[in-house]
Amino acid sequence: MRVVDKTTRVGRREFLRTTAGAAAVAAVAPTVSGQALAEPLKTVTSPAAATLVQMARDLYPHDALPTKFYQSAVSIIDTEVSGSADTINLLADGAVELDAAAKKLKGMPYAAIADEVERVAVLKSIESTPFFARMRSGMVTALYNQHDLWIKFGYEGPSFEKGGYLHRGFDDIDWLP
Questions:
Q1: Which of 28, 34, 57, 76 would staple 49 via disulfide (CB 3.0–4.6 Å)?
Q2: Residue 48 counted as domain residue
Q3: What is the C-alpha separation between 58 and 62, in angstroms, rounded?
Q4: Is residue 51 part of a domain?
């Protein structure tokens, strides 16, 4: 069993470095997130990819997670839908639909909306669509099956090869606030 240290330690210099650049990063985040994909998506263009990554962040918000995990999850979903003729246009058409809903409700594309509450309102307006259902259900496995992400949540991985959790802290709930 491992003990998780929940104390965040930030030195004065790190704090100043982080806060000084936060405004600049926030200003360019919508454009950077789509362009920073390691490889282009199969069914979606770069501007639509930025919309999908922002949508993924809003569906499963973890402020401390780097964007690369969300980009990877969107890439996994893109690969899955590209394998079927029925779903090959689902993400591209869905991103266009999401941007259209954002322009109708907020007057700007989805990724350009700065306030999370306003983005969630846009998502609620399309939550009955097949695109939303596919993104919501696909993100569960595409995001949380990333082994590099497990340690950030305090999950040590499967335990069956070690005899299970019975004698390894199955009732240890030190991770709760």
A1: 34
A2: yes
A3: 9
A4: yes
DSSP calls for 86-128: TTTTHHHHHHHHHHHHHHHHHSS-GGG---HHHHHHHHHHTTT
Domain residue limits at 105? 29-151
CB 113 within 8 A of CB 102: yes
Its pTM stands at: 0.70
Give how many domains the chain has, as a whole number. Answer: 1
d(CA 88, CA 21): 39
- Give me the tens of pLDDT residue by residue for the chain, a chain 177 residues long: 555 555 666 666 665 665 655 444 444 444 444 444 556 788 888 889 999 999 999 999 999 999 999 999 999 999 999 888 888 899 999 999 999 999 999 999 999 999 999 999 999 999 999 999 999 999 999 999 999 998 888 887 887 787 777 777 666 677 676
Q: Give the C-alpha separation, 9 to 29, whole Å.
A: 25
Q: How many CB atoms are closer than 10 A to CB 96?
A: 14
**Helix axis angle, 116-125 to 90-106, nearest 10°:** 120
Question: What does the alpha-carbon distance between residue 49 and residue 127 come to, in Å, rounded to a whole number?
Answer: 19
Domain presence at residue 6: no
What does the longest C-alpha to C-alpha distance in the chain come to? 56
